[in-house]
Amino acid sequence: MSGGRHVAIIGAGAVGVISAIEALREGHRVTLIDPGEPGGEQAASYGNAGWLASHSVIPPAEPGVWKKVPGYLMDPLGPLAIRWSYLPKALPWLIKYLLSGWTAARVEKTAFALRDLLKDAPLLHRKLAEEAGVPELVERNGVMHVFPSRGNFDNDLGWRLRKKVGVEWLELNADEMRQREPDLHPRYTFGVVVEEAGRCRDPGAYVAALANHAIASGAKHVRAKATGLKLSGNKLVAVVTETGEIPCDAAVVAAGARSKQLTASVGDPLPLETERGYHVMIENPESGPRSSMMASDAKMVVNWTNKGLRAAGTVEIAGLEAAPNWKRAEILRNHLLGMFPKLPKDIPASRIKTWFGHRPSMPDGLPCIGHARASRDIVYAFGHGHVGLVGSARTGRLVAQLLSGKQPEIPLAPFAPTRFL
């Protein structure tokens, strides 16, 4: 199979626009299909925490997490909340989610697969940012994890597995942390710095710049909502949208949390769910971290962006249509104020911005990257959960390799959509 196919890429988020760039590089013609503005506030990419964490190899579910489910149901403001009204619909996904992390061996297998996908991601993103003319938006200067005690770190299965897959880090005692982060609350007494990781200064602007780069390189952008895929036998003939059909030779489903309807249209009912996420951002903050960090007790990332100090994290299982629970953003704000005591408690509301969006998540913490069963003209690239931005760089390369019939640069068996079919 040679280049020169007309590829319709459904979704202009991080995965979609990078897939477009890499498909163009392979000699294909590309049409990007998305009803929204690339990098706009409606997109998961926009509200991302901004971490390019190549060490984010641990899936959300770990052994014993099933014991916490009653607490998740009772606490609508906890780090992981499940709305009672959505529980019947979410239950099949939740069962698969719990089973995927039932044993340490299963989590370890996932960690090795994610390491393949994420390794060197900050470098790949840096090169893409340079190509798109926005090198200042991607920094490769490490990230910090902070803990109330050394014990919190030692008892974490995730860090033992990170070591096993080859992640390295620098450990900091309380004095060393205070030298690096003088504004951080003294309750944090142990930290680790993962120097290979990076950050994005403005995820929305980065995705927008990548989309502009793809369009300048020859991609066409069609503002439409895709509703299905049209086949003739095992050959793809068009993407169906609300405004008509777009003829094409190949298609990439990279529509994030809204990919489920598209895969079902060609006979692949995949268990995709949205892990709803929130962020809060303080403009012109009086205090904060010198580096990007994650607080183990708050389960949130704090990252400097060009627009302010952003705190992002937590998960809410409530579907695509339910209204946001803005109290969850208030919890993030309170955690942020608690982490950095020099931040004033009476920051004017005009300087505090909140956001809510949809992480597209498969129950086992691994994205779907591979062909549809009905046709090898269709490539799936969605379901990245908490690693969408960082994982998008290599995913785009893999998509282009699949479109061109080339050997993928990493083993794709762990990401095969057929694992759920």
From TrEMBL:
Asked if the record carries the keyword rRNA processing, the reply is: no
One Gene Ontology cellular component term attached to this UniProt record is: cytoplasm
- The record places domain FAD dependent oxidoreductase at 6-402
A Gene Ontology molecular function term for this protein is:
oxidoreductase activity
Q: Which Pfam families match?
A: DAO
SUPFAM superfamilies per record: FAD-linked reductases, C-terminal domain, FAD/NAD(P)-binding domain
Query: In terms of domain of life, where is this protein from?
Result: Bacteria
Alphabetized UniProt keyword annotations: Oxidoreductase
* Alphabetical list of PANTHER family matching this protein: GLYCINE OXIDASE, SARCOSINE DEHYDROGENASE-RELATED
Q: What is this protein called?
A: D-amino-acid dehydrogenase
Taxonomy of origin reads: Bacteria, Pseudomonadati, Pseudomonadota, Alphaproteobacteria, Hyphomicrobiales
